[in-house]
Amino acid sequence: DAKTTQPNSMESNEEEPVHLPCNHSTISGTDYIHWYRQLPSQGPEYVIHGLTSNVNNRMASLAIAEDRKSSTLILHRATLRDAAVYYCILSSPTGANSKLTFGKGITLSVRP
Amino acid sequence: SQTIHQWPATLVQPVGSPLSLECTVEGTSNPNLYWYRQAAGRGLQLLFYSVGIGQISSEVPQNLSASRPQDRQFILSSKKLLLSDSGFYLCAWSVREGQGANEQFFGPGTRLTVL
What we know:
The complex is a heterodimer of chains A (112) and B (115). Chain A has strands at 9-13, 18-23, 32-38, 45-50, 55-56, 61-64, 70-75, 84-91, 106-111. By secondary structure, chain A is mostly beta strands. Chain A is built from no helices and nine strands. Chain B is mostly beta strands. Chain B has strands at 3-7, 10-13, 19-26, 32-38, 44-52, 55-58, 65-70, 73-78, 87-94, 105-106, 110-114. In chain B, the strands form two sheets. In chain B, strands 2, 4, 5, 6, 9, 10 and 11 form a seven-stranded mixed beta sheet that branches. In chain B, strand 5 (44-52) and strand 6 form a beta hairpin. The radius of gyration of chain B is 14 Å and the shape is globular. The interface between A and B is medium-sized, with 24 and 29 residues.
């Protein structure tokens, strides 16, 4: 499976934008870029995913580099509830299966 | 709407005892089902996935097994627990049909402590 690299941690101030980087230099043409987040003692929660174009949804935006070797998850206004571990994951669906391989993720802390 | 249930929420078991964790999904048909484990301070590890009744794929060799007796039921079992089986066990589902990347929906998890 293609791998991703993320910083171990990042701090942000409440109500400020947050940019979470992810490098995936060995990404293949069929790999989708997923972001999930996990709050303490909970299961992961889907945030966003994309293939080539930038994506926006109610939770976040995903900016994908033109060569697709890196991407950035953007939280437009961080809140205290956004403090979590954020996972950047590549997944290449084959048929009906879409397996996710979680790394260590990046721990986001939000200061009031 | 779809919901996913796991039980029990917490479990403390002695080494060598059997294990059965259950996961059920409501509000969807023919889902892909997954079992993950998260050891303390580590990322999630995919243990098993299933694309249909009786169809189980194992991702890593281990002391655990999985079964899917019904379309929306996924069971994780062990005959004899090891200390290293302690962790946070998560069940997830995704839609089966369609191409591209399917979002996975996770259950609330079971925290297992083996003593």
